[in-house]
Every structure is written in C-alpha cells, then in structure tokens.
Specification:
This protein has 455 residues and is mostly helical. Helix content is 76%, strand content 0%.
Length: 455
C-alpha cells in the first residue's frame, strides 16, 4: 500500500513536471514569436524604433564628428592664414620652405591612416578618436613655439601622424551605423566640417590678427595656433562622452543614449544592409587582403587622388585672393569665406539628390565639370571679378564631389567591417599623394603675387 502511494506520488510529480515543462516551452515559444515579430523590418514597432535610433544618432554622433572634423581641419589648415601675418618672417622661412611645411604634414598623414583603421576595428571608437583629437590639439598649439624651419617641419610631420586616424575612423564609424541609402547625406554633413572650417578660418584669423597681434609679446599667427588648439582639446573631452562604440555595444554613449531595443536594432539593420554577413572570426589581415585585391579600391584611389590634386589651391587660397588686390589683409581673409559657404550648400544639395535618386556617378562627374570650368576661367583671364567668381565654381565642384566619393567607397567596399575599415584607409591614404605634390604647383607664388597662372 505504501509502495503504491509512493508510485502514485512519483507519477503525479512527474506529470506536474511534464506540464510545467510544456507550459515553459509554450511560453518560450510565445516570447520567441513576439521577438521575431519585433525584429521584422516591415513591422511598425521595428520601424518606429529604427526611426528613433536614427534621430538620436543624427543629434549626437553626426554633430560630434562634425565638430571634431572642423577642428581637425582648422588645426591643419591654419598655416594658410598664418602666412598673411608674420608666419614666414618670424621662423625665417625662405624659398619654398613654406611649401615643404604644407606638404610634409601629408607624409605623416599617410603613414598612420592604414594601421590606425586596422586597429580601430578592435578598440572602442569613443575612446580612440577622442584620444587622438586631444593629442593633436596639443601638438598643433605647439606650432606657436616654432622658431626655425627645422622645428616647424618636425611639428608638422608629427601633427600629420596624429591627425591621420580621425577622418578615415570617422567615416568608418558612420558606415557602421548608417545604411547605404542614409550614408551620402551624413558624409556630406561630416565633410561640410572641412568646408566650413576653411570658410571660417579666414574670419577667425582676421579677428585674431586684428585684436591679438603683439599681445603679451606673441604674434597674431601664434595666438591663432594656440586658440584653435585649445578649442579642439575641449571638444575632444566632450567626445569622450558623446561618441558611441560599435552597434549593439553597451559602452560609450550607447550606454546612456540608446535603449536595449535600439542597440539590438542598430546591429540588426546594418547586418541586413550588408552585401554579405560579417564573419565573427574575420581578421584585420583578411580585410586588408580583400581590400587590396578589389579593383574598385584602386578606382576610388585614382578618383580621389585626382580630386585632391585639383584642390591643392586650398592651402594657398588666401594668397590667391591677396593677389587680386581687393583690399588689406583683413578684407582678404573675409573674402575667402563666401566661396566655401556656397560650396557647403552645393555639397548638401548634391548629397541629398544622390541619396534620393540612389545614384553616385553623375553626381560626382557633374560637379567636377564645373570645377574644370572654374579652373579654365582662372587661367584664361586676368579680370579680378571673373577670377574671383571662378573660385565659386572650382571650390564648390571639388568639395561636393569629394564627399560623394568617400560615401560611394564606403557603400561599395562593405563586405565586412574589416574590409571597409582597410579600404577606407587605403583610399584616403593614397589619395594624399595629391596633397603632397599639389603645393609645388604654386612655387612662384608670394604673398604679393598678382597672378597665380605662373604656377
């Protein structure tokens, strides 16, 4: 009797266990179905969460990278404005030494880009990019202490090495969060940081030269390097908090900015957008090999090298405008801004049209045609008004097409994160050849030149 009760009790317990397991299984299946429904890209919940995600990225990631890139280019290009002060006289620069100082930065820039982007796939971007920004800010500010040509060359070479990780790293981070149909406009926004930095650098320099030249025994150009270096250092500290790490992570701004659903969708939607799935065991060397073997990498290199060669005028534009003899240094620096401001508008318009039409080739080629027209007008006439007007054409065309080339490359060479990182770095690295040789197109220029056709 006792044995029967024990057997019956065991059966009852076993039956209850089976019921519990069945209920748990049904519950788990129900939760799985709900999760699958949520991660269906056509569902309303998915679309609403994705929309919130993109809006948050547009209000944090893009503006933060934009401000960093603005200071990245201010710290790199302020040498062009410094030339209108006593920058050449104080360190005793002679002959083509200014051209060498412009060119040498790009040598350092080339050395660091590829290893940096290979490393970026294995570290936290929020810490990595902010770190380099803080360091380059200090080195840029130290330019104010240069007393001779040798010191200037050393600082410019190191500055190029330290600034190199940012732009390819920023492009890679954008391509990790934005799909192919979203990337062109965000690339144009990022690239506008360069254009506006060039536009406002003249206005900033005009104010600094006018108000601080000689203050505390420092020349205007020295104050320019110090103030812009200090500004970018403060921005780097903010970037530590605002920049996210990779999609799906719970570090950087992802921790406080995104919900769990948004973090998961940030990774899910990018995987759906890729041509192939990212392999978990993919190495940076595999990505490097794939990028080098892809013929499209080299096509983009050729396109961007030609583009960079074309806008070699950038480091000499204040000198070019000075040669028009339209006014004193202050007016000259102010007049350098309008062409770049218009170029910003053109770049946005071209990028928005490119995204809407889902087309890149014609949107790159047509601005380049306008650039060619601008250069031809500059060479064909000595009329000051015509040549200043031509600057609007070649500046707008060069910068708007340049942004789309980067976007197109990121969209095309995206079979894995490692390949995308390496390809972006290779393209940006080798295209710097255009920036290395283009300063020597202007060997005959001086601050008092009336024409730059001799270059």
């Amino acid at each position: 009797m006792s044995n029967e009760k024990m057997t019956t009790g065991a059966r009852s317990e076993h039956h209850d266990t089976i019921i519990d397991q069945t209920n748990m299984s049904e519950k788990a299946m129900s939760e799985l179905k709900i999760e699958e429904a949520f991660f269906d890209p056509v569902s309303e919940e998915y679309r609403a969460t994705e929309k919130r995600l993109v809006r948050k990225l547009d209000l944090t990631l893009v503006p933060m990278l934009w401000v960093l890139y603005l200071f990245n280019y201010l710290d790199r290009n302020n040498i062009a404005q410094a030339r209108l002060n006593t920058f050449e006289k104080d360190p005793g620069l002679k002959g083509n030494q200014f051209n060498i100082a412009v060119s040498i930065l790009n040598v350092g820039y080339m050395l660091m880009q590829l290893p940096s982007n290979m490393l970026l796939t294995r570290v936290r971007p929020s810490l990595y990019l902010a770190f380099w920004a803080a360091i380059w800010s200090c080195v840029s500010a130290s330019t104010a202490a240069c007393q001779n040509f040798g010191q200037l060359i050393a600082v410019r070479l190191v500055l190029g090495i330290l600034e190199a990780p940012f732009f390819p790293g920023a492009m890679f981070l954008l391509s990790c969060y934005y799909t192919r149909k979203e990337l062109a406009l965000r690339t144009a926004i990022l690239y506008s940081g360069l254009i506006l930095a060039t536009a406002f650098s003249g206005l900033i320099a005009a104010g600094v030269f006018e108000g601080l030249d000689g203050v505390h025994g420092l020349a205007g150009w020295q104050w320019l390097f110090i103030l812009e270096g200090a500004g970018s250092f403060l921005v780097a500290l903010v970037a530590l908090v605002v920049l996210p790490d990779f999609p799906g992570s719970n570090t950087g701004s992802c921790k406080w900015l995104l919900t769990e659903e948004e973090r998961r969708i940030s990774a899910d939607r990018m995987q759906r957008d890729r041509v192939t799935e990212k392999r978990i065991d993919s190495s940076v060397w595999t990505g490097l090999s794939a990028a080098l073997k892809d013929v499209r990498t080299w096509i983009f290199v050729a396109m961007l090298t030609a583009n960079h060669s074309a806008y070699g005028f950038n480091n000499f534009f204040p000198t070019i405008v000075k040669g028009f003899k339209l006014g004193d240094n202050t007016l000259t620096l102010i007049l350098t801004a309008p062409p770049y401001l218009l170029a910003t508008v053109i770049a946005f318009a071209v990028a928005m049209s490119s995204d809407r039409m889902k087309e890149r080739g014609y949107h790159i080629a047509i601005p380049m045609v306008f650039s060619c027209i601008g250069f031809i007008v500059s060479v064909a006439t000595l009329n000051k008004a015509a040549r200043y007007t031509a600057a609007f054409l070649y500046i707008g065309g060069c910068f708007s097409s340049n942004a789309l080339i980067f976007s197109w490359a990121s969209n095309t060479l995206n079979q894995s994160a490692e390949k995308r990182a390496c390809a972006t770095a290779i393209i940006n690295l080798l295209s710097q050849l255009g920036n290395i040789w283009s300063p020597y197109f202007f060997l005959q220029m001086t601050v008092h030149a009336t024409s730059w056709r001799s270059c």
